[in-house]
């Protein structure tokens, strides 16, 4: 166990002792007097220290300006104290980052954009927003179609991890050609290029950091940067995970489909799976059957998970980022 983790655990134990002693020593409150919380107990929730600078897409972002510091402060403390949610992000990332990262690299998109995916969908493959944005990258239907994703009865490729990531990369590349700034690209993914461009012109600024926008977009880049900081040093913020806590990637075989499948449950059984397991690894299939387009030119590939990986075995878990776990 490394020194940082040992120090964290020691502090946790000492704080626990402080709580017990403070409660014991405070005794009972006299009748008629208001009970007060011991100051040491109140001090256990500590505000996260804020650095002077953070890096986003290899660009150093200063947090010395008051509004920049406070916007980052809000998000880093939010991630730190939403314990179960942040833990789940890290566990899921071990499964999905190995898929996302090579595609970002292939398209020349900075690796930091994988954290945008965390913010968009919580790395939930079935994510669907109230506005009907879908999948890991939360594409709206018109945008998804404009970047080549198929959406029709029974098929929605916004839920296809690889294809949706490729579509997102094409969007990022187009937006970067327009702005020449990755922070502006990230903001445009939330608000749209039209809104960011018109507001830059109206407010006479060149950076999304300087724009007065709706709260969701104003927080967006800071949430991405805070997620990166937490993922880079989880133990620093109190997140202690072991190898077996992470969700393992599940290897699959791809089966080419060139004819209609009238019953996906029957199709799944042919490969030793049930319907639920088949859909878990092919979320883009949105019906109980798969009907090919009328032109019949398209070949679909259905992922068939290797059965031995559908059961928990510690040996199956590959730690994608050593910073996520303790020995």
Overall pLDDT score? 89
Structural class: mainly alpha
Largest sheet: 2 strands, antiparallel
**Strand ordering within the main sheet:** 1-2
Provide the β-strand percentage band.
5-15%
Q: Would you mind describing this structure in some detail?
A:
The chain has 327 residues and is mainly alpha-helical. 46% of the residues lie in helices and 7% in strands. A two-stranded antiparallel ribbon has the order 1-2. It has a two-stranded antiparallel sheet with strand order 3-4. A hairpin with a 2-residue loop joins strand 3 (151-152) and strand 4 (155-156). Helix 5 (114-121) crosses helix 10 (215-232).
Compile the SSE list and pairings.
Layout: H1 3-26, H2 39-42, E1 53-56, E2 59-62, H3 66-81, H4 83-106, H5 114-121, H6 141-146, E3 151-152, E4 155-156, H7 161-179, H8 182-191, H9 193-203, H10 215-232, E5 252-257, H11 264-269, H12 275-280, E6 300-305
Antiparallel strand pairs: 1-2, 3-4, 5-6
Helix pairs in contact: 3-10, 4-7, 5-10, 7-8, 8-9, 8-10
Summary tags:
two-stranded antiparallel ribbon; globular; two-stranded antiparallel sheet; 46% helix
Summarize the structure.
The chain is mostly helical. The protein contains twelve helices and six strands.
């Amino acid at each position: 166990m490394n020194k940082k983790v040992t120090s964290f655990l020691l502090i946790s134990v000492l704080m626990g002792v402080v709580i017990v002693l403070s409660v014991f020593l405070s005794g009972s409150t006299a009748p008629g007097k208001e009970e007060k919380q011991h100051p040491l107990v109140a001090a256990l929730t500590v505000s996260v220290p804020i650095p002077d600078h953070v890096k986003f897409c290899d660009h150093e972002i200063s947090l010395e300006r008051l509004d920049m510091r406070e916007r980052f402060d809000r998000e880093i403390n939010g991630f730190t104290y939403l314990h179960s949610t942040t833990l789940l992000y890290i566990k899921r990332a071990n499964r999905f980052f190995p898929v996302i990262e090579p595609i970002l690299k292939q398209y020349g998109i900075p690796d930091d954009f994988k954290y945008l995916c965390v913010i968009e969908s919580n790395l939930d493959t079935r994510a669907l927003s109230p506005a009907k944005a879908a999948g890991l990258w939360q594409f709206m239907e018109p945008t998804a179609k404009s970047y080549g994703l198929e959406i029709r009865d029974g098929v929605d490729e916004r839920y296809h991890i690889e294809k949706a990531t490729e579509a997102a990369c094409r969007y990022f590349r187009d937006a970067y050609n327009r702005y020449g700034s990755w922070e502006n690209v990230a903001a445009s993914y939330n608000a749209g290029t039209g809104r960011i461009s018109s507001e830059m012109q109206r407010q006479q600024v060149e950076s999304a950091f300087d724009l007065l926008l709706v709260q969701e977009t104003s927080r967006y880049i800071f949430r991405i940067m805070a997620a990166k900081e937490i993922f880079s040093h989880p133990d620093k913020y109190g997140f202690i995970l072991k190898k077996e806590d992470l969700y393992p990637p599940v290897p699959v075989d791809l089966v080419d489909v060139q004819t209609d499948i009238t019953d996906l449950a029957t199709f799944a059984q042919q490969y030793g799976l049930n319907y639920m397991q088949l859909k878990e690894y092919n979320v883009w299939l949105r019906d109980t059957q798969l009907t090919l387009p009328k032109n019949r030119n398209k070949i679909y590939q259905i992922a068939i998970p290797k059965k031995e990986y559908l059961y928990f075995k510690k040996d199956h878990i590959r730690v994608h980022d050593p910073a996520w776990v303790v020995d």
